[in-house]
Specification:
- The protein has ten helices and 16 strands.
- With about 350 residues, it is an alpha/beta fold.
- A seven-stranded mixed β-sheet has the order 2-3-4-5-6-7-8. The protein has a five-stranded mixed β-sheet with strand order 9-10-11-12-13. Strands 1-14 form a two-stranded antiparallel sheet.
- A hairpin with a 6-residue loop joins β10 and β11.
- α4 crosses α6, α5 packs across α6 and α9 crosses α10.
- It is globular and about 65 Å long.
- Bound molecules: zinc ion.
- The site of zinc ion has 5 residues, from loops.
Amino acid sequence: MNAIVTADYSVPESGQLQEVAPGVLWLRMPLPFELDHINLYLLDDLDGWVVVDCGLGNADTRAVWEKVIARFLQGRPIKKVILTHAHVDHIGAAGWLCHYTGAPLWITAGEQVTAEEYAQLSGVNADTFSVQANSFLHRLGMDEQQTAGIMGIFTGISSLVHPLPGSIYELKEGMSVEIGNVQWQVIVSEGHSEAHACLYSEALGVLISGDQVLPRISSNVSVRAAKPDANPMLAWIQSLEGLKTLPADTLVLPAHERPFYGLHARLAELIEEHMETLIRVEALCSEPLTVMQLVGLIYQRKLTLFDQLLAGGECLANLHYLLAQKRLQCCYDVNDVLVFSQPD
Ligand SMILES: [Zn+2]
């Protein structure tokens, strides 16, 4: 299959369910962002349901869940909540939903670490987090005003995540989860987040791809303050390559936008886009640049503070990839800001 083809399902209204494969229901949740929705999936488990991803921890999401549980689940309980990863639009309502339904939570160990960072933001380690995040943003070349604004964004994000249950089950690479007599294989990817889980059913020919493969936009791949030396772009590209082993005619159920066919075409497109960006970043560093100077040259438009954070993190991910390949070098300037340039 050489092109991406949107699957022929109508987009469900908020709080409605659309079957997209036998026993696989598509549910949309609203998001108050530029990307205004997230796709969640409900899997028929015979005497109950398994939920994949949960939406934000806010009143709008909780209201939709209450409606769906009361009207559409035929009185059968939610037996399990699975998270692809710990980003706020996926995990936010999870703690509440588990408490509301009594369902256990399943997540990879890597994502559980990220999830615990939300609690740190408002807990006893908030000052330590703040110092680390401030110095990280400073090293990217952000000024005090940008840094203060972004710290406010971190606090806002953590307020959209309900506390997780005390007891959590671990999703692991390669494990099989049986749901309604269907085996779902867990495929763990890195780059967009620490240990993102996709679910693949060979019998159904379906991949629940989370944010790992989206039909139009490319997921953010950022170096984060918690792991300032990481090379997530390498992990991301390797993870995309790994998914090429799945059949070309797989139906992809993404966390944003619409289900589609053309997995191999989309993987190739995503990898090619990143390779082109890497070549461009390498060329721009013919002059020594800070991360935020590079952001200015690449995006060439006014970015919101949140977009500056995403763009700065992703530019640093590109720079670390090139650094590891010795295509760039890096030093600190007199203000302790990172400067990247082509090798001498
Ligand atoms: Zn995500």
